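This section describes the prediction task in plain terms. A model, or a person checking by hand, is given the sequence of a single protein chain and must write out its three-dimensional structure as a string of tokens. No templates, partner chains or ligands are provided. The sample shown here is typical of the held-out split.
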Amino acid sequence: MRNLDAGEGAQGRKAVRSRTPLIFAAACAVLLALVSAAPFILEAAAPNFGKRWSRLSEIGQTYASISAVLSALAVVGVAYSLVLQAKQARLEKFQAMRTFQRDLLLMAMEDESLRPCWGPMHGLQGQEWRQHTYSRLILAYLWMGAEAGGIPSASIRANAIEIMKSHPGRDYWQRSRDRWRLDACSARERQFVEIFEEEFQRRSSEP
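The expected answer:
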């Protein structure tokens, strides 16, 4: 039941995020319409102005300038909302891929007959294969947290320091770091790889 509740909450938050740009755009449109119509509203409210139309024209020009500024802000706001929405969609897709990969690896950890399906895996077997795979899952979790911005770089480094203190962690990074470099596309992902490489080199140089 708790998992269902969590899923419903996530869906609710996603729905709210998807409606936010539309609500923002609608509010800006209403505001722009009111500002643009202000001179005409003033004219209707004061029909006896007569020769004072020039005064209304000046007011209209002022409102036109304000309207232009608000239009620019509205465009920037909508563009920013679309960028955030695209980033959120990318993160959700990335999370789904990692979850699927984790499930496949866990199946192979429980059933040795499935392990050859992943290829030779550096010729590892038994306990070494399980440690290699488990280290891979740990780094995948940290990688996803770093990409989502949920785990700061200081925490990534602290985890890298601890992982590199263990032989399985160092062995895994030595075997797999080239693959992590190839997968690093964003600035955060490249920083992630640099942090682990730095800690690996620092630990390897120690006597």
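For orientation: The chain has a mean pLDDT of 76.
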